[in-house]
Amino acid sequence: MTPLTAAEPPTDVPTESQHGSTADETEVFAVYGVEPEVQAYAMAKYSRSALSMKESLREISSQKAEKFLNTFYFQYGHRSIADLAHIAMAIERLSILAAIILVDEQRWDGQERSTRYQNFRKSGYHTPDFGTHAEQYQLFCGTADFLFNEYDAISEELFQHLVGRTPQPPEMKRDQYERTLRARAFDASRYLLPLGTNTSLGQIVNARTLETQIARLLSSPYAEVRQLGVKLKVAANEPAYDLTGSGPGVRVAPTLVKYADANEYEIKSRAELTQAAAELMQRAVIEPAPVVDLLDESEPFETELATTLLYQHSMYRYRQVQARVRALSEVQRGEIINLGLRQRGKHDELSRAFAAGQKFRFDICMDLGAFRDMHRHRRCIQIVQPFAAGRLGYDTPSEMVEAGLQSRFDAAMQRVGEAQCKLSSHADLELHSHYLSPLAHRQRALFKMDFSEAAYIAELRTTPAGHYSYRRVAWQMYRALVERYPALAQFLRVTDINEPVDLLKR
Predict the structure, then answer these.
(1) Residue 22 per-residue DSSP state
(2) What is the pLDDT of residues 320-360, one digit of tens each?
(3) Of 162, 225, 211, nearest to 347 (Cα)?
(4) Do residues 201 and 270 share a domain?
(5) I want to staple 98 with a disulfide (CB 3.0 to 4.6 A). Which of 94, 152, 308, 490 is the partner?
(6) CA torsion 374→376→381→384, rounded to 10°?
(7) Rounded to an integer, what is the distance from CA 86 to the centroid of its chain?
(8) Quick check: pTM over 0.85?
(9) For the chain, how long is the longest CA-to-CA vector?
(10) In the β-sheet with 198-206, what is the strand arrangement from edge to edge?
(11) Residue 285 belongs to a domain
């Protein structure tokens, strides 16, 4: 038999032209200027109609889109429809604390103001409502002002220190040289910025993520965060900012977020699991822990679930909680798991703690600045503990020591700790004290992932251009990984963080 060639198709197989279409008839086009909910409706119609996108868009009015979404999204529960409506939003002048909570979504894209490249001296800070606690209000403001003054002064001293030890290369312009070294100075001085520092961010999320985000924010114990949830919901219903200024204002998601409300499942489960964790740990002393702890792979699945549920609502390292959970009976472990399930409503997804079973689980205790950077890795599951308000200690950047500023830095941390202790003595002001936590304070979180994500973090976050704090975290993740699997070391392209770094290269 003569071999077939591309020019000689078999006679018993129809050619594309015989099917009535050719490759040249495939049409690809971008869509612009369509309201997000109308776009979602038009794309969803592919599964329910033979109309083309252009025909669907010409046919659809906003009223039809709302009717369709009410039927299929809310009545029939086809939630994937909301994945098709993408919304760009700006959130400005919120605290870093609120920003951390806001972006804690698996499906989130956005950018926040960087403490590495911007001077936050004039940002100001969020002040919680102190009501009649006038003395505590003065303590809070005095401590926050002190931190900003120290941040400003120490930023300049660190810059001068770096200039003194880093000659300007002849080929580098003066403004680029100074800009680079100021950024390096901010790398260290940011450790003084409190969580109350105002920041801004932009996000592009689909409507389903926005809906769950709003519900989660409305369920927060922080008043600022709850108010943020209200503002996001209002922004989705009001006319969006239109740069062109043409036509009636577009409302980006008036239908898809209209039922977003506080999540009772989250609120009640958090209260019950917090109480269960406190009863199980019985005020035990928090054990010291390494920066990175790669957990055992042989842990029984039920133990992992119960431990993770309690870990998320405590300040203890994973192994410390795990030891208590292991000592329980099978029935008792089942009761803990049930606490994470019994408040679940008809439309509630399982809480993140149930996203379990990953092979690589890292219990990480790092400074808040590093945590904000590592928090961006959304391919892994992150179980974040409550803000510790200094109970896990703090980290001191090496530049502070080299510049002779360690005693001044320690004094600042001591002053913050005393202020937080005084505020926390009032039960209704404990959450207020969290806004004073500098980025030097440590934060604990459980990062669960597959090998690909572990390799990605190790390779990306050890590069010399990165902040030394998360470089240390990524390096220790790598070391833990290859200690368990030595043969894998040769395949990972990491940078040894112990090698000297050129401060003028970023």
Answers:
(1) -
(2) 999 999 999 999 999 999 999 999 998 899 999 999 999 99
(3) 211
(4) no
(5) 94
(6) 60
(7) 19
(8) yes
(9) 96
(10) 86-95, 198-206, 109-112
(11) yes
